[in-house]
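Cast an eye over this sequence plus tokens and explain the fold to me:
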Amino acid sequence: MRRGAPIATSTAPGLTGALVLFGLALLYAKRGPALSIFAQAIALIMLAQVLIVVAGHVYGVDTSNYPFPFTPLTAYGAASVVLLAVGFIAASPERGIAAAIVEQSPAGEMLRRLLPGILVLPLVIGWFVRQAELRASTTAPRPLPSSPWRASSCSPCSPGPRSAPSDAPTSNVRWR
């Protein structure tokens, strides 16, 4: 490698998209009350992106062939996006989402108490459902045998187990 040659690096597309969203949020942050709330909504979109990526990793979703390009995020990228978005929302607590969270009223107190459950509980329930689906797919019941001598030997009313296919009936008599 030549000295002074640029090193080719690439940033994960998810981090690039989040940084673009963060730049838009910064652009609209102090342009008025409506645009400030819009900027905080963009920060919430960044948090939703990280939540989707983390949930996908927890559930074991393969995103290598996923058509949406902004899903791949490294752990460091996800942590930095969370810090940027939370810092952006916390930077202007006078209006928007941060104002609702820090409000000194019963509504603000209830939101502060319920917010962790609102974010975590659906992920935990989804993880348990996913685990149940995986176990159900690996322990699927086997189909019943189609042979009459084996099926009849499994019933509680059968006279006893039959040992070989040579014991099979030669006529069309229905066995119990």
Q: What stands out?
A: The CA atoms of residues 13 and 70 lie 5 Å apart. The chain is about 60% helix and 0% strand. The mean pLDDT is 77.
